[in-house]
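Entry for the shared binder. Reason: the reviewer on the internal report wants the predicted structure included alongside the sequence.
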Amino acid sequence: MGPLHGVKVIELAGIGPGPFAGTLLSDMGAEVVRVERAELATSATRPSGFIFDGRGRRAVTVDLKHPDGVGTVLRLVERADALIEGFRPGVTERLGLGPDACLARNPRLVYGRMTGWGQHGPLAQAAGHDLNYIALAGALAHFGRVGQPPTPPLNMVGDYGGGGMFLAFGVVCGVLEARTSGQGQVVDAAMVDGAAYLMGAMWGLRGMGGFSEERGTNLLDTGSPFYDVYETADGEWVSIGSIEPQFFAQLLELTGIEHDDLPHQMDRSGWPLLRERLTAVFKAKTRAEWVDVLEGTDVCFAAVLPMSEAKAHPHVVARGIVVEHDDIDQPAPAPRFSRTAEEIQGPAALPGEHSEAVLADYGFSADEVDALLTSGAVTRRSR
């Protein structure tokens, strides 16, 4: 009974940010129905191969090139609060499932569109991936160390942070507004937009002259020695973020770094020498030894843990941040609610696993379901 309990979402299956938005909505209690391609009903694989990005919803397989297949999805839309899709602009229109067709069936529908470049603009029809979107948004140029090439931050900034999260947020905003106005609308979520938005604070600092476009020279981009990662004696790594003066003072105290000859913390002329001393001091002990000295203090410290170790850390375990579900480790739903608890609603469904049950729940009679299966407009999981 999560906070979105009762909200119905139709997800036209895709990859990356669209499915991630579907997972976010499902984890918060929404009923998400994933519409897959008809031929996948005979496949043994999970949707798109992503167990996390497919969890917590039911799966229907529909032939969207079949007129009755399109009609079936429009019937589902009639009872939904939102639809999300991640095709290039114009694709769903050509299929007969564009915003106009869907809103004609359900004027209260929130139609969420997920693309890289957005629904309009010179690049709207061009192919791309996370890396390209965050590059053009002015984000990628600022990840990396001084004198080094830009470092792609996995696909977290474009696909997930700037994409799927903004789509889910937009859908929830649209559903809330529709409950007041009685009218649906289109949500144009673009990764290039979201990535730029995530850089908002940096844009603000730049506007005030407090952010250099030279990579790796700023406070938070490894330019400052007290906000960085350091190698330990055993070849592992630790992170420090001792920005505030009281935290910086504790860093100097607990590491025993000589600092009488160093200028003020924010005097950049002293940063090279401070980095040299921090590098040497952290290299003198193992990661575990530094954990014993610094973890839980106000130094702002954490060991740099790969996923295999992070899942076993006492804090991660205490909060249940990583759970075993569907036979693999995966992150638990977030954020947390005190009354309407979030939860994983189920494992990733196999394509076509719920075709008959979903159609029945959305008002199709047994005869209508049989006719759709016979015509091939809808398929079901082969047993």
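Summary line for the report: The chain is about 35% helix and 15% strand.
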